Amino acid sequence: MIKKVDHIGIAVKSIAEQVAYYRDVLGLPFLGEEEVENQQVKVAMFQAGEIRIELLEATSDESPIAKFIAKKGQGIHHVAYHSDNIKEDLDNAKKQDIRLINETPQMGADNKQIAFMHPKSTFGVLTELCSEE
């Protein structure tokens, strides 16, 4: 079951160029950076109340983030929802004819299991489910 918004993913060309804005201008606590090799992305995380902001920088020209920026430019990439049972929520979405990008969860940033639903099935919003399973 979906419990809350976990984070908002923002596609950026350069994390280094944007850290100061989120940390110094907005005053958001900087939680750190990590690279998620299987997603071909570097992630910088900030805390905004109960929600995290994740800056996503491509580590490869073949990365979904690189393709997103090439097509749409920098900006909001996805909204992620915290699930207490990601497999059950994926099965439920599939039964409701939602197109899944990931049929099974995979490892994402912050040691979370993640899976994406295609924006063509979710009214234009790339939707991520994440869980600490």
UniProtKB/TrEMBL annotation:
UniProtKB keywords: Metal-binding
Any one of the GO BP annotations: L-methylmalonyl-CoA metabolic process
Entry-linked CDD domains: MMCE
InterPro entries named among the record's database cross-references: Glyas_Bleomycin-R_OHBP_Dase (IPR029068), MeMalonyl-CoA_epimerase (IPR017515), MMCE/EMCE_epimerase (IPR051785), VOC_core (IPR037523)
MF terms in GO: metal ion binding; methylmalonyl-CoA epimerase activity
UniProt-listed Pfam families: Glyoxalase_4 (PF13669)
SUPFAM superfamilies: Glyoxalase/Bleomycin resistance protein/Dihydroxybiphenyl dioxygenase
Domain VOC: 4-132
Family: Belongs to the methylmalonyl-CoA epimerase family.
The protein, known as: Methylmalonyl-CoA epimerase
Organism ancestry: Bacteria, Pseudomonadati, Planctomycetota, Candidatus Uabimicrobiia, Candidatus Uabimicrobiales
